[in-house]
Known about the structure:
InterPro entries: AlpA. This protein is mainly α.
Amino acid sequence: MDIIKEQIVRPKRAMELLGVARTTFYRMQKTDPNFPKPIKLSVRNSGYLITEIQDYIKQLSDNRNAPA
């Protein structure tokens, strides 16, 4: 496992990468089954694998070119 590729980012950074506000981020997490699952870091903290966030962005990009 490459530690650089499997970096964990906190929700704030994930929101920045996705370019969405907090409310939209948590709505996407709740309603989109393809949204990356959080990793529990402690009782109050969670994070996301940066590679999963990047893959999700790629998936969104690929879907915009798909026929409706």
